[in-house]
Backbone:
């Protein structure tokens, strides 16, 4: 169904309502944590390393990792997961900690207040969603 958020696994279906979306509060997704373990900007690039993950990943971690097959910004991952940016950063930090993804700081020329940069990000998000 267009516009429907992605689901993790079939076991997650009782936590999903087609009209309301995810029925779990964001702090539950992050294990109650409210701060990422490392500094990460919305324009930071994240990419999967291809290393095997030895930790048990939750469905949101798995979906985030799947979105990192190509270099992707934190903002885009948050938008695709339909999670707040801080929760997405916490999930991505977990993936960094277990070696599943690497991050790169945004280019200093990518000023987030520059209208051209914002328009480029908006266009990329619209193409993906």
Residues:
């Amino acid at each position: 169904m267009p516009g429907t958020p992605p689901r993790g696994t079939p076991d997650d279906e009782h936590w999903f309502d087609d009209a309301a979306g995810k029925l779990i509060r964001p702090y539950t997704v992050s294990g109650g944590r409210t701060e990422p373990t490392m500094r990460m900007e919305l324009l930071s690039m994240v990419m999967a390393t291809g290393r095997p993950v030895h930790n048990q990943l939750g469905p949101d971690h798995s979906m985030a990792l799947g979105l990192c097959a190509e270099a992707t910004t934190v903002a885009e991952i948050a938008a695709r997961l339909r999670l707040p940016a801080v929760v997405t950063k916490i999930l991505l930090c977990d993936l960094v900690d277990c070696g599943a993804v690497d991050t790169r700081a945004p280019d200093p020329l990518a000023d987030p207040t520059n209208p051209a940069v914002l328009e480029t990000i908006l266009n990329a998000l619209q193409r993906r969603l």
